[in-house]
Amino acid sequence: MTGPLQVANISWRFIRVWNRNTLVYRKIWLVNFIVPLFEPLLYLAAFGVGLSVLIGKVSYNGEDISYIVFIAPALLAIAIMYNSFFENTFASFVRMYYQKTFDAMMATPLSLEDIITGEIVWGATKAVIAAAIMLAVLSLFGYAHYPHALLILPLSFLGGLAFGTAGMVCTGLVPSIDMFNLPIFLFITPMFLFGGTFFPISALPGWAQKLSYGLPLTHLVDLCRAFCLGQMTQSLIWSILYLTIFFAMLFPVALIVMRRRLIN
Amino acid sequence: MGENQRFIIEVAKLRKEFGGTTAVDGISFHLVPGECLGLLGPNGAGKTSTIRMVYGFSPKTSGSLKVFGLDIDSRPREIKAKIGVCQQENNLDPDLSVLQNLEIFARYFSIARKETRQRALELLKFMALESRKDDKVTSLSGGMMRRLVLARALINNPDLLILDEPTTGLDPQARHQVWERLELLRANGLSILLTTHYMDEASRLCERLIIMDHGSILVEGKPADLIRSYAGDHVVEIVNPSLDVTDFVNAHEFRHDSLDHRMIIYGKEADRLFEVIGDRFCGQTCIKRLATLEDVFLRLTGRELRE
Alpha-carbon distance B16 to A109, whole Å? Predict the structure, then answer.
């Protein structure tokens, strides 16, 4: 079965692939924990102590908040994006191309679709772990408003699925591992800079604002910020819907390009 | 597998095309329970393409392919659950230890977690790898890796073992170790389908052979029968044959191959004239030996190099 019908080839067995990746992750859990633990501290030190003095307050949704409170939730959103996107590009590519792990799996009852699903769900799981650790650090400094901030956890899973699936589409298409630099430059870096992360979208000209809202990170940042600040508005539903549709549309594409790549 | 299962593998008019080229050109064969069937052929003959279709890795272009009586296209999971596969490339999981490679693989087959450890340890013992169970896969020698791949292929207690060039790249000691394990498995009634370049491997392990070239089956039969029909019993190789020999051989219409600096003459055991050649024309540049599968293979597939 090819095309959108490939979804029918997915079974619960995808969890076995997820198990495999979890086991490998646990082997070096300390190293895996260090980055999400200390990265926010570095950012907070640089922006909180350094830049914050220059900038002072930021006007966001009609409220004046300190710059550090403004960027703390964006750090979460960026971590969610990086963890899932990089897992399902570089790490998945290494398993697929260099280690031939997928080839070995395909000689078992696992289908290609189980494998890809397991990889994407694993990428999303990694995003959840990173978000949880970062959230704990940010909470210590009082940058998370509870109980709303707990919504970050399910959100990081959704965001992880969205960015992981985008990464998997790249993995299905790139001829070599070096080529990942292209989607990173064209897709990830512009979002990192212009997705409402380090300055409010409202500072951009009108056309750029519209463009920015076409990108998934902008929505993820809005959601993280709302959950951290405890500012729940109805328009957040649209951001959740955007991320869900982004994932739902790209997921069959990921299955198609991976089948084209691996099955012949 | 049902008691009355006639064939483990049943292939009819199987074709595989990649883009414009035909890798497998309408072949038919079968494998009966408990048999070891070998696919022989030069590089590019279509051996690997064939077995990749059998274990559901590569979809067929046309024809019919049944494993355990089930259609490969509609029931791949059930078929794959009962097959063990040793692929050509070592694709052990370098992120995992020796033991974990087996345990995690067992989980892909949904073998209960409490059974996986015991089963993995048994197989490591069978393959003489127990002492390396906690080591990284990358620290193993080529022969050990191959044995581990074989252990991994047995983790689900398969009814059919598929081996794609199981001993390519191994030193003689390591090859013999793999062969001994495979002979034990065969003695226990496991059905095996294997591809190989090595004639000694094929004649030692396989009851029946298929020699393929250019995607088609050239001949099929027991190793001894193939040798008798296509190379005779004895062979005389003469280096730099004189014109006398050439004339003699041509006059008596012996089966022979004339190469640049060598003549290979194939004869039957009871062949008197064949002995005459040995006595009359053989100096020091002449070898008398038994006919082998390699003679059959080279006669059928030619001597030119393959890419």
Answer: 23
